[in-house]
Amino acid sequence: MSVSRRQFLALGGLGVIGAAGALALPLSTVGASSASRLSDRDMPRPYQTAFSQAPLLQPYQTGIDPADGAPVNSYLVTAMAASAAILPRLRTPILSYNGTFPGPTIKVERGTKAVLRMRNQLPAKHPIDDHLLSISTHLHGSASLPQFDGYASDVSQQGFRKDYKYPNFQAARTLWYHDHAVHNTALNVYAGLAAQYHIHDPQERQLLPQGAFDVAMTVSDAIFAANGTLAYDDREQSGLWGDVMLVNGKPWPVMKVQRRIYRFRILNACISRSLRPMLSTGDAVTIVATDGGLMPKAQSVVSWRHASAERYEVLIDFRKYAVGKRIELRNLSNENNRDFDNTNKIMAFDVVGAPVDTSDPTWNTIPTTLAASEVMSLTQAQSTKTRRWRVKRDDVTNVWRIGETAAAGTWAGVVASGFRNVIANPELGATEIWEFENSSGGWFHPIHTHLVDFQILSRNGRAPFPYEVGPKDVVYVGEGETVRLLMKFGPHRGKYMVHCHNLPHEDHDMMVQFSVGLADGAVDANDPINAAKPTWDDGL
């Protein structure tokens, strides 16, 4: 039975029992200070849970690529139903990678290729709206070939698997892998199909904290039904804003920290909510890396605007705080969010007196000069073309789109064209300026461009914010804002997506594609649907 997403829906019966009927409740019951239906004793309280990180996934096989002699790590991930201990007394059914939320973190060295075998062992249907639980895995931030990029319509059905091949030639950076199934990305990611992926290299290892002091933080928000299941309300397909903030799947956790410098890889995995983090002390933090890796120079900021899917690597110096001091990471929020009683809090840090290893030079070093990446070295003079689009909601159809026409500006238009329609066709190696204007009114749009990193040239004609002056693949386009981006297209030929990372917008239907280095009518050797099809999963 199909249930309207305009209602408040409980994600029930996900576990081993399979899909159950979704619970529909009227929106009018949602209070101003909370959204969940949990009883007082089941509602989590800030700073009652210990911080923990996702498990680290080890390769099940290592080898050498005979084509070029590069090392190759092979990983096995199963998309499956599971349950999570998020609430004080209740278990929450989730969709997961390998049974955890977030899924397991993958770490590789630059130059080591990876093969990620993704198995779809999910229930047949999603319990919210009965859509078939097909999946498409996107390694967000990777310069992957189109057939391994998680193209939305390249899906693996239940019982099938696909081997995704990742080159990992890019400089050190924080990536993440998440579901990208056509028109169902929001529901699938919200239910738990998300995880971090880190590329390391010698420069980053020398400059920044490693090991226990290199901390992955996946931030998300959620709404809960009275029985502890996740609930879903995308407010007329405009976005979902939960009242419970989660870090690595735990509500408002507390982390014990030594009196030294820590590095935090902060991923906003909320499907709609943007963040504006700051420390409760008012002290500045140091941002050293953006989506695409190290910035040219470190930036000291008190707070920053952080949209869905953006990654910021942040140094926090705990040396100045006394043992026993608690520092909160708070959330000031931004325009066009919906906030609740405790969405102004993210997590807390308690300073402990454990001895610090002072032989590690990163314990008390905050670097200033970092790395000059290729994209940050581009100049406007190298651009051969400027392209402009408006991002908005169609006043007649209520469909989100990029550009002026539904045929080219929505994924429905792409599908109707037989996957031929593109909004741009840059040549391989070309440098262009892309401009996005937000005229939607009442919403912000995190725009994500697959394949390439970009440099933010300007925001409303002014310089970008200091924390944005690094290689990016997602740009926050606020209400009434126009951003100009500079990017070089490559290293692959083929078709790639551009979309809003407010995932209900993407699903309805704010996603398009561009092609790189493909002439009209040319045979596409990297066809994203047909070049590497899923196969029946018969085990390893």
Mean pLDDT, as a whole number? 93
Strand content: 35-45%
Name of the CATH architecture of the largest domain: Sandwich
**Which bin fits the share of residues in helices?**
under 10%
From the helix content, strand content and strand pairing, which structural class follows? mainly beta
Radius of gyration, whole Å: 22 Å
Question: How would you describe this protein?
Answer:
The protein is mainly beta and 540 residues long. The chain has three domains: 195 residues, Cupredoxins -  blue copper proteins (Immunoglobulin-like); 153 residues, Sandwich (Immunoglobulin-like); 143 residues, Cupredoxins -  blue copper proteins (Immunoglobulin-like). Helix content is 6%, strand content 36%. It contains six helices and 34 strands. The strands form six sheets. Strands 1, 2, 13, 14, 15, 16, 18, 20, 21 and 22 form a ten-stranded mixed β-sheet that branches. Strands 4, 5, 6, 8, 10 and 34 form a six-stranded mixed β-sheet that branches. The protein has a five-stranded mixed β-sheet with strand order 3-17-24-23-19, with no helix packed on it. Strand 20 and strand 21 form a beta hairpin. The two termini are 35 Å apart.
